Amino acid sequence: MPTSGLSIILRILDNENRLVERADQKSISLLSILGVFMVFFIVYYRVIPINALTMTLILLYFIFALASIINLIMAIRPRIKKEKGAKTDNQIASARDPAFFTGISSFPDVAAYKDSLQKTLEDESSVNDIYIRQIYSVARINSVKYKFVQRGVTLVIITLIIELIIITYLFTYHMSTGLEIMPPIN
């Protein structure tokens, strides 16, 4: 493959790695936002009147908040299942891939890694194969990450809507009973 082909492969790999970073950033941001709103909710938890409606809303709130947290954590650290069936190119290829983390860390020392890397670099097609396998692996990770990010976004939105419903109910409840709008926090 000409040098321009290798540069295209490297650009694709770089783009996939950036998508991994974006998924992690989105998940961390959503966890932070959810944390801020949960603190606000917990502070005013003691002034929520106990009745069937509020207990149902609180239960739903905590279920959706927990589901949001689980999905966002799974987006940061997804579990990738190995494909079953026939041997893949990854299994046929050398068990010690000198360009990917798990392969690099499997070498006993620097000299063995250096020898393997030099042998690999001598054959341009093997270099391309290594990067193509990396692109495929990172793309599979991205598909799992973004599945959890999408679920997490939906669950965070539902959680915040439930919290807003509870806050609105609190406001109307305290206004209708003639109490202060929100009792002070002691």
Shape: rod-shaped
What is the typical, i.e. mean, pLDDT? 82
How many domains? The number is 1
Note the beta-strand portion: under 5%
Please mark out the parts with pLDDT under 50 across 5 or more consecutive residues, or reply none. Answer: 90-94
Work out the oligomeric state of the chains in this entry.
single chain
Q: How many distinct beta strands?
A: 0
Run of helices and strands = HHHHHH
Q: Please compute the radius of gyration using only Cα atoms.
A: 25 Å
Q: Largest sheet, described in full?
A: none
How much helical structure, as a percent, in the residues? over 70%
Structural class: mainly alpha
Q: What is the tally of helical segments?
A: 6
CA-CA gap between termini: 71 Å
